Amino acid sequence: MESFTKQDFSVVYWLKDLFSEYSFINIVEEYPEDGLQLPAIAVDMDTINLVPFELGSRDRLGIRTWFLDIYAKNKRQRNEMGYKIIEELEDVSIPINNYDEGFPPDVTPSVIGYLSVDDIELKIIQVLPELTEKMYYRSLVRFTTEYKQD
Description:
Blueprint: H1 3-18, E1 26-28, E2 40-52, E3 60-72, H2 75-91, E4 94-97, E5 111-125, E6 137-149
Parallel strand pairs: 1-2
Antiparallel strand pairs: 2-3, 3-6, 4-5, 5-6
């Protein structure tokens, strides 16, 4: 499995661990198209930027931008999920696991690196009642990471 795919899975499982005590929150790996079950958090990424690291070297910094779309039943729920995510991102790096070894809960894969988090943003997205049949509340957490190996 390539390293970008391992990073994708690692962010999803990091988020599932973060909200593990709240079994009613649905963590999905993509933008939900059908049957949105509230509350939910969708993990997606935007940009991968491979920046030269050293002059004359082929080493590059792997900088990625991530989006966590939050869908909630009410304003308080939306805010609490968003606050929990950004407070956790301030304090930790996200471990990158070797999912070639298997997936939780059957296997606890070894850590092969981590994503160092920078530039965290929480943005409220207005959902207009006249444009949707089911009213819900949204926000977006955007953050960038740099991949670092152990």
